[in-house]
């Protein structure tokens, strides 16, 4: 090989080495940036996932409580319906009896009683 060719080859190898070093430095910088990013983001992501998990558990508990309340309301409604159905005739009879009361006659009887007892109460109040 000629010396001139070796010189060109040496220059080419030096350029390649220079570019390889630049590539290695860029790769090391990218790797360092990636590690720093992971170190910053992973704790935040972990905290966020823990919060999401906590909220999910609270929602599941709330849904369980809502199911219990719905069951309770359904039972109470069924009991109320049973009570009304069992006592429907008694309630109807009571309402009919209340509607048959002679309120005017009752008021007149109360007025008569007041007229009768009123003078006696006034007489008794004098002795106090």
Please describe the structure with a list of short key phrases separated by commas or semicolons.
mainly alpha; 93% helix; 128 residues
Question: How would you portray this structure in words?
Answer:
The protein is mostly helical and 128 residues long. 93% of the residues lie in helices and 0% in strands. It contains three helices and no strands. The protein has helices spanning 3-86, 88-99, 103-125. The termini are far apart. 0% of the residues are buried.
Topology summary:
Blueprint: H1 3-86, H2 88-99, H3 103-125
Inertia-based shape:
rod-shaped
Indicate the structural class.
Answer: mainly alpha
How far apart lie the N and C ends? 149 Å
Uncertain segments: none
- Average pLDDT, rounded to a whole number, is 87
Helix content: over 70%
Radius of gyration: 49 Å
How many H/I helical runs? Answer: 3
Strand content: under 5%
The tally of beta strands, per DSSP, is 0
Order of helices and strands: HHH
Largest sheet: none
Give a short overview.
The chain is built from three helices and no strands. The model has no long low-confidence stretch (mean pLDDT 87).
């Amino acid at each position: 090989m000629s010396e001139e060719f070796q010189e060109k080859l040496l220059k080419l190898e030096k350029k390649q080495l220079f570019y390889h070093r630049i590539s290695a430095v860029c790769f090391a910088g990218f790797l360092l940036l990636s590690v720093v990013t992971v170190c910053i983001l992973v704790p935040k992501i972990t905290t966020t996932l823990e919060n999401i998990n906590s909220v999910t558990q609270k929602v599941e508990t709330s849904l369980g409580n809502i199911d219990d309340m719905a069951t309770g309301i359904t039972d109470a409604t069924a009991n109320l319906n049973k009570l009304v159905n069992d006592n429907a005739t008694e309630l109807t009879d009571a309402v009919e009896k209340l509607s048959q009361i002679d309120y005017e006659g009752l008021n007149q009887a109360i007025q008569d009683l007041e007229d009768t007892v009123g003078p006696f109460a006034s007489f008794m109040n004098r002795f106090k």
